[in-house]
Amino acid sequence: MRDKVVGILGGGQLGRMLAASASLLNVKVVILDVGESAPAKQVIAPISPTLAHVDGSFADPQKIRELADKVDVLTVEIEHVDVGALEAVQNVPRPTPLAIHPSPATVHTIQDKFRQKEHLASRGCPISDFLPVEPNEESIRTAAQQLGLPLMLKSRTLAYDGRGNFVVREIPQIPEAISFLSKRPLYAEKWVPFIKEVAVMVVRTVDGEVQSYPAVETVHKNNICHLVFAPLRSRDATLPRRAREVAEAAVKTFTGAGVFGVEMFLVEDGSLYINEIAPRPHNSGHYTIEACETSQYENHLRAILNLPLGSTALKVPSAVMLNLIGHSSSMDEIDAIVNVALAVPGASVHLYGKSECRKGRKMGHITVVADSDAQLRTRLRPLLESLPSSTPEEIDRYAPPPPAPGSGFSDPQPLVGVIMGSDSDLPVMLPAARILDRFHIPYELTIVSAHRTPDRLVEYARSAAARGLRAVIAGAGGAAHLPGMVASMTALPVIGVPVKGSTLDGVDSLHSIVQMPRGIPVATVAINNGMNAGLLAVRILAAGTPSLVTAMEEYLKELESDVMGKVKTLEEVGWEKYEVKRT
Amino acid sequence: MRDKVVGILGGGQLGRMLAASASLLNVKVVILDVGESAPAKQVIAPISPTLAHVDGSFADPQKIRELADKVDVLTVEIEHVDVGALEAVQNVPRPTPLAIHPSPATVHTIQDKFRQKEHLASRGCPISDFLPVEPNEESIRTAAQQLGLPLMLKSRTLAYDGRGNFVVREIPQIPEAISFLSKRPLYAEKWVPFIKEVAVMVVRTVDGEVQSYPAVETVHKNNICHLVFAPLRSRDATLPRRAREVAEAAVKTFTGAGVFGVEMFLVEDGSLYINEIAPRPHNSGHYTIEACETSQYENHLRAILNLPLGSTALKVPSAVMLNLIGHSSSMDEIDAIVNVALAVPGASVHLYGKSECRKGRKMGHITVVADSDAQLRTRLRPLLESLPSSTPEEIDRYAPPPPAPGSGFSDPQPLVGVIMGSDSDLPVMLPAARILDRFHIPYELTIVSAHRTPDRLVEYARSAAARGLRAVIAGAGGAAHLPGMVASMTALPVIGVPVKGSTLDGVDSLHSIVQMPRGIPVATVAINNGMNAGLLAVRILAAGTPSLVTAMEEYLKELESDVMGKVKTLEEVGWEKYEVKRT
Q1: What's the domain range around A470?
Q2: Strand B165-168 versus strand A494-499 pairing type
Q3: In a domain, A525, yes or no
Q4: Structurally, how many domains does chain A consist of?
Q5: In chain A, N or C: fewer CB atoms in 10 Å?
């Protein structure tokens, strides 16, 4: 590693995070950007006078040449660079060849969004219909007739963070659109009625092998990335895998090494459309620094240096990234939210060292990690509340508050599903809910009848794991099929509570639940003992959450001290006067 | 944060990691160390000419003064600094007072190990007996008579990484010891026959509040920190908590803010002795960068800047730090192990950018994180194997290989304990073991009889969680008390397998296991169904390990396709000729 020098075109936050990763591996880095205090230059001092950073624009061919002369591998933190200049430096004779990643051809294809769409369409990647348009009313009206309204008008080049996009909702808006997008080459896209935005970071080796990070949900606000949730949750268990497959297939169609950010739209029927691809580390991959075994930045370096790729697996159950976007020319709002973040467990602040704050400028980000989605939202909430631009609706949408304990309503991010075959089982199941309340475990409680709502049973069981549940408690009586049928359609542990009916003393339910065939276990508890089902769920969650082991140990100590209190009372009042309390 | 400037005395690896943390918070840092390319100076470029790094020794009072003039808060990466110089700069009149953390008084106490011991002894902290000695035979012989042999002779000052220690095993060694420790002020310590070394990082606020990181096990080699395992595992469930209490109490006795590393000895009877304390980020806390919610470096900065402390909780189940110590003047050995590390999932490489390699010099470290201790050891093993200094015994000790699948021997780092009341239950329990083999889950299998080995039962159940187990499978027949009694003495989920006896068809066992009282659940599976117990354990572990959810989903698909194969056969051969296979 120590012998190769990496040059980065651009010294903003992506270059800064790349440079920080390079330091860990003793990889020498030279930055090209304007000024001495570009964010990336702050965190990597020049190693020698000959390897000094270059002061100049990443759009200046002369400066690119100057950078190229110092380095062995050239990479970009932004795709809006002069491809001709890249090709020119690649062709300069030198003792050892210059590697450029991503390849100039890839940058050429991607930096023009229309060309990118043509490329993806010709390789069979799923994208929305699109057409070339001229910046005149007739051309756009024709496109609207073919693709329908609303129509997405986009600038082909230099468009990011929503700059260069215009949504034509009605024909009379066309002149306004032309004026807004003036002087830019345009194209039109069929509007995708998406219900969610999804992104996948993919890392591609020099040999063209690809490896993807977990699929994430992205939330944009004013066309700028606002929040990234990892991993993606869905009622559709196949979605995360499908998103990775689409992203990997798309990245395979390009040349050159490094990470690529693939942004996608999810529509109601479950289809995915690629929105756009960035040939570099991406905002939707910042979370990987704290949440994955290897960050996107280190994997970008490994890929372009032809080193083995690192694991892309998540190392925490749940993570969210919140962008810190300038609200005005003052850093005060950013400082205010950072101060809140310092008090949030699991929050890591990344400020980019930008000298000036501007409205809409990316000043930093905060990544929060947590044991569960519910804990994550609890941690995220004060951050969203401290953002001046947050509306109450947004706060409740992305960081919904948990229901008040004992309120009798389900948590929107449950870890445990408590279900029963009939509302008549509620008295038996309530103690399970009370135990989960006591241990602060988010849960949902509802009715799923194996025999009367079989479709609901299938949907519930099949989606349970993908929705983020980690255990299911199912209570049923008589020919009690609910727990076993749920167990046969989920990989999660299912706890069965035999409910005592009017005949056979509950032994019918017990045997129906416990005597499962080989292959599908149900964790059965005592007849009518919903409380123990709740406690078993806590113990199961404790297998992945050490703090719950401690909480359960304290609970066991309380049980012991309760009995010891009764021992004392018995000795004090004598057994003739002792009153047995039944709960 | 942006308004305070932090000065660090020392620009080695600790200063480097502090500086990297400071960048994330836009905290301005000025480094005092010799040369322009000290490791810390490489990762934080001077922010302005007036805030240029200082070129000089951290032992030079003039240079300390020069640094102090530039900063608001002064901190150290090494305690062997000139306390007089610190006190002098603190007394210089200036517009805003200079904060020094740790306080000069703390540095003064700690940098002289004899003074440190006196301090700890007078505050009631557990330390080994010690005596002042003169560097002459008579004085040392007298100490050996009082404290016994072997006797630990230590230099009072400038002693770290084992430099300045001599173990006098026999009286005739005394002249050799005097010669080895020549010209140094000495003291003698009673030898502590430790069975394990333990460390705890503690962060102390300006107001004297303390918060500790998880206790870790440290392994030294040639007196230099070699490995750090987090969290500390033990058969004694109270040990991790006790270690944190000892460390927190000790750090409370000092003044000044920041992190402190507390190194301890564990002896056979479970007692802990403080070995020594470092008033700064410490080698035993490097693992916190990848493994904890807030790293020791960021918490040091937060503490000395009087910001809220970050969470010290682990965010991964298991982590290990391996120091990369120079083996010669060549970096080749270091490069070799780094190349191995790049192929190890969960491994993060930290090279320190030191210009020259030397035997015994700390050149970098590698932190590995994992889902479990067993996975951690599997990941650690190739790293130890690639160290030229590793012996086969060391490799097997710190990264024991798992038993061959199906060999019938227990894994040394089990996640699941499979126990049975009698060896006659083995045929029922074997299928559980086979399932765990199939899913690559490390487990142990043994006999624990509730009625015939009650003490063993208690010891097994009480230590299960602290040893790193996450679930217990217990099989028993007749009056089957084993599962329920284990469940009453551990917070882990316990799976009960009712074993069918010669009478009552196993219903006796089933009811004995499932009908637990409220408060203590046992996850009961079908009579004689050890296989389902294994599968339930896999599902329980999946609650904390998403990859196991996928593996279980694939298993369920296989079950489905097995049956579909039989459907096909039935149609092909007809039911008259169909042969039912019993397994």
Answers
A1: 416-542
A2: unpaired
A3: yes
A4: 5
A5: C
